[in-house]
Amino acid sequence: MSEPDVGAYRRPDNLSELLTLLDRRPTSVLAGGTDLVVMRADGMVDRTQDIVDIKDVSDLRGISLDADGTLTIGAATSLQELAKTPVIPPNAITDGASLVGGWQTRARGTIGGNICRASPAADTLPGVLAADAQLELASTTGTRLVPGHAFFTGPGRTVRKPNELLTRIIVPASLGASAYLRFTYRLAMDLAVVGVAAHLDIKNGRCVAARVALSAAAATPVLAPDAADALVGTELDEPSIEAAAQLVLNTATPIDDGRGSRAHRRTVLPVLAKRAIGIALERAREGHRR
Ligand SMILES: Cc1cc2nc3c(=O)[nH]c(=O)nc-3n(C[C@H](O)[C@H](O)[C@H](O)COP(=O)(O)OP(=O)(O)OC[C@H]3O[C@@H](n4cnc5c(N)ncnc54)[C@H](O)[C@@H]3O)c2cc1C
């Protein structure tokens, strides 16, 4: 009998069975399928691999806020649920979720899929880095936490091992607010030419901590530490924000590709950074905490 040329499809309803299946043989995780189906059709994913569909594992979905302010997002939570959540005010992660594709893509696509696909231009990733989120990876041998900024190793590549599942995104409590903006040539259904997320912690009118993260500006989403450091200690007045925004260029190493030129990306990045910091500041002043 000849070998089948496509792998088996399985849809467990509990995490333990799912992890056992992932451990057994090379298997593709299927969440919303908005990337995976295209990648399999294009030959980017080996079609002989089994597919394990995670949609029926309810532990992987949902958004919850602990009493200490820690936010937990299940990896299989849809981007639409995240974009519309009443659990937290608008922030860089929900801004990113609300910009992905059209509503059909957001209803199907998940934050875990957006993260594990690891596109340098993906819209939720700068928010994940700017929030200092931890990514929980589970396997049959246990779980480990990886900081968002250490998760991505290249375009489409992460530190996740083949038998590991991204289960949760854990976001620490915040003293401040955040925002994400991207630049696209069209207003809808386009990928970011560049994107910037800013997170500001503010105490007594002064910035006490900040993180700025960029998409489509390097081979992975990246933090821009010089820009963030320049904000800390300031009252977030216009000249301080302007100066910090310019410093994103110390980190940005964008390329020329079909979506934009390196030169244009470097022109747009400080402008977006200034606006993203401005929105985060406005949100913080309105009392948003995220
Ligand atoms: C029309 C269209 C427009 C789009 N526009 C945008 C856009 O504007 N911005 C943007 O960022 N993206 C965009 N995308 C890309 C896509 O929708 C997102 O990346 C989506 O979030 C992927 O999630 P998913 O659940 O569909 O993942 P899937 O396609 O199911 O999986 C994607 C990858 O992640 C892996 N994976 C998924 N979940 C897990 C998990 N929990 N643990 C381990 N591995 C996992 C899969 O094995 C696969 O390799 C668009 C896609 C389409 C089709």
UniProtKB/TrEMBL annotation:
InterPro entries: CO_DH_flav_C, CO_DH_flav_C_dom_sf, Diverse_Substr_Oxidored, FAD-bd_PCMH, FAD-bd_PCMH-like_sf, FAD-bd_PCMH_sub1, FAD-bd_PCMH_sub2, Mopterin_DH_FAD-bd. Residues 1-176 form the FAD-binding PCMH-type domain. SUPFAM superfamilies: CO dehydrogenase flavoprotein C-terminal domain-like, FAD-binding/transporter-associated domain-like. PROSITE patterns: FAD_PCMH. One of its GO terms (molecular function) is oxidoreductase activity. Keywords: Oxidoreductase. PANTHER family: XANTHINE DEHYDROGENASE FAD-BINDING SUBUNIT XDHB-RELATED, XANTHINE DEHYDROGENASE SUBUNIT C-RELATED. This is FAD-binding PCMH-type domain-containing protein.
